[in-house]
Design goal:
Bound molecules: adenosine monophosphate
Number of strands: 8
Helix content: 40-55%
Distance between the termini: 8 Å
Structural class: alpha/beta
Largest sheet: 5 strands, parallel
Strand content: 15-25%
Order of helices and strands: EHEHHHEHEHEEEHHEH
Shape: globular
Length: 220
């Protein structure tokens, strides 16, 4: 099997996490979600978490230098030799350049960038209803995926909360940040001929099927 170095691109709430986990189960490639890594660091109150928290709570990106080294280390790890799935990274042009530089050092390159396209209105609907388990980050939605008991995680019984960055004014800020800082990466990767665009407004299983089809072609 050729190596598969994958990037999931799309606005917050486009379903990158859901799709990333499914591809991770399919492909047995390590899945690195920078949002999860950063939230874990905030929970554990590490130095990284302490530096990142104020940016995240505002809906801003954390500075590139806080996140680039973390990803560089992971893609250079033993478990990522056959490839990886990145979710939430790169999110700026300097991050994309740093990823290319790191892969270049290793004699590798990005195999495919999967853009999951969703409108701003749909993002607001999805993120506004999202509820997250306080202990482990398990995710629910008041409308699309409610827990069995309102406000309680089915898996570990801990309270479900609205993440600070899922509050309405912060959602709008995150979308503005996406359009300004991350959307230029669509053209960046398109110019390299590795961009694949899928319509993310459909059922998650339909999106997964389309992604599987694309990757079957990339990996063959
Ligand atoms: P996410 O769960 O991917 O939406 O990420 C949550 C928050 O973590 C974002 O709103 C940013 O504040 C921060 N974050 C995640 N990934 C990155 C990144 N690659 N660069 C900068 N900030 C990031």
């Amino acid at each position: 099997m050729p190596e598969l170095n994958l990037v999931l691109l799309g606005p917050p709430g486009s379903g990158k996490g859901t799709q990333g986990e499914r591809l991770n189960a399919d492909l047995h490639l390590p899945y690195y979600a920078t949002g999860d890594i950063l939230r874990g660091a905030v929970r554990d109150q590490t130095a990284l978490g302490k530096s990142a928290k104020e940016y995240m709570d505002r809906g801003d990106l954390v500075p590139d230098e806080l996140i680039v080294g973390i990803i560089a280390e992971r893609i250079d790890s033993e478990e990522a030799r056959q490839g990886f799935i990145l979710d939430g990274f790169p999110r700026t042009t300097p991050q994309a350049e740093a990823l290319d530089a790191k892969l270049g050092e290793l004699g590798r390159e990005v195999s495919s960038v999967l853009l999951i396209d969703v409108s701003d209105d749909e993002v607001v609907r999805r993120l506004g209803g999202r509820r997250t388990c306080e202990a482990e980050g398990h995710v629910y939605h008041v409308e699309f995926n409610p827990p069995k008991v309102e406000g309680v995680c089915d898996i570990d019984g801990s309270p479900l909360i609205v993440r600070d960055d899922d509050k309405p004014d912060v959602i709008r800020k995150r979308l503005a940040t996406y359009h300004e800082k991350t959307e230029p990466l669509v053209a960046y990767y398109d110019a390299k001929g590795v961009l694949e665009r899928v319509d993310g407004a459909r059922e998650p299983s339909e999106v997964t099927d389309e992604l599987r089809g694309i990757l079957a072609a990339v990996g063959s």
